[in-house]
Design a protein that fits this description.
The chain has one domain (30-168). The protein has helices at 2-20, 31-48, 61-81, 86-96, 104-113, 128-140, 143-149, 157-168. The chain has 8 helices and no strands. α2 packs across α8 (157-168). The protein is globular and about 45 Å long. By secondary structure, the chain is an all-alpha fold. The chain crosses the membrane at residues 29-47.
Length: 172
């Protein structure tokens, strides 16, 4: 039931973004997929409650495993919707910036994937790429390094921020 509600919400959110955009998205043919990917990532962020990957305050193992399965589903969806690594590039770029220059939503996203907020024992094939992207940005503090590392993504930082902003605010 929960996944049905999330799926319907995702479709409605994308419809809202598409019908309320004030400027056309002409960046690439990937823009619709990235919007869906960012919305799925938003759902994963909200599901995590702002904690890092694998960090939960749960009372039993069954709840913990259910939460991890849901996180893995969202991260897998994001990865499949973004074969060029644009969301990873965005996450890497966020980590190159001083925290005070990020929007609240960007800071929340960056916080979830930082190494010191991630339980290394709970890294999965689904979360490892996101944690790696964040760590590379944090270590380099250089957006050009992110551009080089994720060179398959042809969108620049401003385009990615714009898409992220649209996807995050689609309910407003």
């Amino acid at each position: 039931m929960r996944s049905l509600v999330l799926s319907v919400g995702l479709v409605l959110c994308l419809w809202t973004v598409d019908t309320t955009a004030t400027e056309p998205i002409t960046m690439t043919a990937l823009a619709p997929f990235l919007l869906v990917g960012f919305v799925a990532l938003k759902a994963g962020v909200l599901l995590s409650g702002g904690y890092g990957i694998g960090k939960r305050s749960v009372d039993n193992l069954e709840d913990y495993e259910k939460i991890n399965q849901q996180q893995n589903l969202f991260l897998s969806t994001v990865t499949n919707l973004d074969p060029n690594g644009c969301i990873l590039k965005f996450l890497c770029n966020l980590e190159t910036k001083p925290m005070e220059t990020l929007t609240q939503e960007e800071a929340m996203l960056a916080h979830i994937f930082t190494q010191n907020n991630t339980n290394k024992d709970s890294l999965t094939p689904y979360s490892a790429a996101f944690v790696y992207a964040a760590e590379m940005g944090y270590q380099s503090k250089d957006a050009a390094s992110c551009d080089k590392l994720f060179s398959q993504c042809t969108l620049d930082e401003q385009q990615l921020r714009s898409l992220f902003g649209r996807s995050w605010n689609c309910d407003q």
